[in-house]
# Entry
Amino acid sequence: MTEYLMSIDKKKSPKRVTGENADKLMLMRLILMEPGLYETHPEMGVGLVSKYRYKDIDSIKANLPSAIKTQISYYLPHIIDPQITIEFGYKDNQNCILISILSEQIQTVITVNEETRTLVSLL
# Structure
């Protein structure tokens, strides 16, 4: 997979990310994206802010993994049988949601600020 960035390289071409790094970038975008952002794909996006902002921890742990799996199976079908775990922790002086995604194709941890639902890190 190849994903293009909004910046340019020395040849004035869009910078691109390939392979597992592109998959990580797409996963992060799917998780943070709000449904309805793209008219051609109104169901695309987990909606971490709109659907999970005021939910309790148990509700998030119960529902968020299945929502992410559904998005992966539909928009990133080459990632087969991902195992998703949700944890809550403290990183960089912030309360965070740690979303771990593990499959044969990818291993990543997406850390999101619990209060603002913004990206803290992508490993």
